Amino acid sequence: MIINFLNWIDRKLRFTARHKDFLYRKIPENIGYSYCFGGMAFIFYLILVLSGLMLTIYYVPSDTEAYKSVVMISEQNFISRIIRNTHKISASLFIIAIILHSLRVFIFRAYLPPRDLNWMTGVMAMLLAFASGFTGYLLPWDQKAYWATEVGTNIFKSIPFIGDHIVITIRGGDNVSGITLIRFYSAHVLFLPISISILLWAHFHMVKRLGISKKL
Question: In the chain, what are the domains?
Answer without folding.
Answer: 35-210 (1.20.810.10)
